[in-house]
Amino acid sequence: MKWKKGELLKVTGLYLLIVPFLNVLNATGYVNSQLQGHFGASSVEFMYMNLVPVFALVAGLPLALELAKIFPLKSMMLSIILICIVLNTCSAYAPSIFWFILFRSLLAFFTIFGIVAAIIPIVVLYNPTLNMAIMYGIVQFIIQGSSNLYKFSGAHFSTIYNWRISLLLLNINFLLCILLAFVFLRKDVALGKQPFRFDFKGWLFLILFLFPLLFLAAEGQNREWFSDSKIKLAIALFLVIVGGYILYARHNSTPLINLEVYKYKNVAIGTLFFFFIGLVNGTGSVIMGFMAGLLGFDELYIARSHLYIFLGLVISVPVCTYMMYHKVYLSVAAILGFLAFCLYHLLMYFRFYPGISEDDFILPFILKGIGIGFLYLLSALYISENVPKPLSTSRMMSGVLARIILATIIGGSVLSTFIANTTTLHKTGISQQLTAGNEAAAQKHKNTKNYYLSKGLKPNAADKMADNPLQAEMAEPATLLTYKDIYLVMAALNFIPILLVLFLGIGRRSLQTIEVEPLPL
């Protein structure tokens, strides 16, 4: 495992090329309130503003993988950089939320081309020299670690200036990428030698597949899910599209997502693994709501506290990479990852109370970073084992759709609904304790009712107005109880895989052959 100085410098430069493309959506990760206030967006519009760019990025992934094989990489990289600078600037000065969503979505769509244009030469450099576990480890470290740093930088500059500055600073990154492209992509050649082949019909199915999921994620909670006719229609449409694609894929020799990939046991299990990891990591939205809504933390405070996740990544990703490279059993990495997430949720369960500070989040967030480092790297490696190169896109899209779309986005929308419903149940339970025997509550209710009676309200109206202050006071403890419920359940769910691995002997083997590209998302 020896590198020449020139090779080491080149691969470092190629890694640096990827970083800004991975983080175009992260610069405003903690400044959503500023964006919503600037555009005067409703809650539904705000959801679309955050979700549409992610869906556009996922839709662009398979096309980028194919086009990168036929276009000269240097020309492609330089073109994408210039397009990104223009689109990023346009999004910073968008006159309305429609144009903001449009420019951000196009920006996300094109950034995946930049990622792939840098990933391909990295793969070429690593395959003959190093075990692929090392490349996966570095890529996952860059993906997970840089997101926290960019979110912090965006929150920092938006606090000093505004959200627009956070976006415009990305242009400096892209300008540096022009220099990196000239230095580290000296040969302007296409790496692929085969003629361009792309399943455009399958791609259309993918886009149609994403449309009802986007609608469900953005409006499911507001429409109360299955009680709304449009939600039922979207679910039915989704099932029809899935069924149509299955029939199409069976009668096509080279479909976009080849169902033959699921004959590989690790791909089928790995897809479920990606889905589960997306779920256990998705509870971070609860922490955001706790910090901003109940503790009153500002954006910069929240961003700074989340940097401790990066510290956990610094610990876990190198350790997991070392273990995988030296053929340590997969089960060891899985147990460490799930144990870290179990402890993270369990510690946070005891921290849902008013008045805690940033220091109280240090240990849980470090544990979360450790869990991310182990499980994300392990899942990316496991789902890639023994998969032939023709099925690379199928394997990759399976993991991306399971983790990002179904678990993180749809799961997050379902979680928000669960939080709202459970909070209402807890408020009902708390209100039942506000009886005549509760002297403090009864006296407050009486004083408030007398106040509104003195203002001329009728007894029934005054009674309703007297309930409002009590309802407001019940909201905070009810929400905290809901958060505790969620994190206690998640702690138990993360402990179950540990028991399964130990008692069923799952993963008692080392990493096998990997020849496909690493997961870029």
TrEMBL record:
Q: In the UniProt record, does the keyword Transmembrane occur? A: yes
Q: Please, which domain of life does this record's source organism belong to?
A: Bacteria
Membrane topology (UniProt): Multi-pass membrane protein
Which cellular component appears as one GO term in the record? membrane
Per UniProt, the keywords (alphabetical) are: Membrane, Transmembrane, Transmembrane helix, Transport
Q: Where in the cell is it found?
A: Membrane
Q: What InterPro entries does the annotation carry? A: MFS_trans_sf (IPR036259)
Residues that span the membrane, as ranges:
12-31, 46-65, 77-101, 107-126, 133-153, 165-186, 198-218, 230-248, 269-295, 307-325, 332-350, 362-384, 396-419, 486-506
The protein's name in its UniProt record: MFS transporter
